[in-house]
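ASSEMBLY PREDICTION REQUEST
Request ID: AP-0331
Submitted by: J.K., bench scientist
Number of chains: two
Total residues: 407
Priority: normal
Notes: Please return the full assembly, not individual chains.
Input sequences:
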Amino acid sequence: MRYRYFPGCTLKGQAKSMEDTTLAAAKAMGIELEELSEWQCCGAVYPLYEDELISLLSPVRTLAAAEGEPLVSLCAACHHVLKRAQELMQRNEDARKKVTDHLEVEYAGEGRVLHFLEVLRDDLGFDKLKEMVKKPLEGKKVAAYYGCLLLRPSKVMQFDDPENPTIMEDMIRALGAEVVKSPYRTECCGAYLSVTEEGVAADTVQRILDSARRAGAEILVTACPLCRYNLENCADNEGKTPIKVYYFSEILAEAMGLPSESAQDRGTKEEVPQG
Amino acid sequence: MTTETGKSRLIEDMKMHSGQDPNGCYQCGKCSAACPVSAALDLKPHQVLRYLQMGLENELAESKTPWVCASCFTCAARCPRDIDLARVMEGLRLSILRNRGGNKFGPAELTPEQLEKLPQQALVSGFRKYNK
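STATUS: Completed
Returned structure:
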């Protein structure tokens, strides 16, 4: 299985561990992710104001660079922006003409735009993933945290049921861990409010973490670097049961017997093959 | 600020660019119940739609609400009238930034600690939402 791969800015910086663990796990599973050359930031947020075409230049350039081949990203925000920009290019001829003329590229909304979780579910299959697991995460209580960007708006994202998604839980189950469901798993973490309204983000994050704790989770997994940052930095966890936040790909790599932060945290570093 | 026909420039711009018609709202309040930051809003999401229906431009322009909205899309997902309130909020933000000038937030306002710690994604999305 071969895909074009768009990392996005944060995966080369603070979320490097999401890229490293995904690429290692993908290689072990026979999934080839070929990084686009000379890619640029996706813009981080999709422009909801339909005449903000300037904000579409970067994602459309990326979509066109995939040359009609399936395009995979890992960051929930990148996937959101690329998927919605593609939908606009399919739906709005005027916007498409202006943007592609400006960029001097041919693009009419073709090609599959996928999040890596969709590759695991739809192309590889979770049954197959289960067979590939080398170190099942037995006894680990793991909750999925979806947040907003993968799920909504569901008509465009077509990722999963927006109110009751299962894709991450299905992955967690395939990795051998115990699935814990928390009612706040599809609630917003506060996103970029941690830049301007830290107190508001502290409230949203606190509700998410406390809800996961009440459900008995030891680990929370996410596909969004900003969600992880907020979950780790905005709440007050003093005196409360510790809860670790990882990228979905870190527990995936751990279950494949590959190095990852989650494996290290559990003191299994020595057992993990180096390199 | 008004248009030639005496209508609110801010509200007309918002309608034109967001493609949303606030008059479809029947004030059920589902958006406000769903909003994860409702508690921090001076105008609740359903009130924003009501103010738009009533043409209360100044109150909307001075409200904190569009700047606390995190564009999580939950309101739009639950609206029984298919009003995309996330687009309404974006329309208000941009109409205010464009018509009244000035940015809401800039790099100079970041603390050294924030610059050190925040992920790139937070900075890019924050500036996209609060700057023009």
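REVIEWER COMMENTS: Residues 126-271 of chain A form a domain with the Rossmann fold fold (CATH 3.40.50.11810).
SIGN-OFF: pending second reviewer
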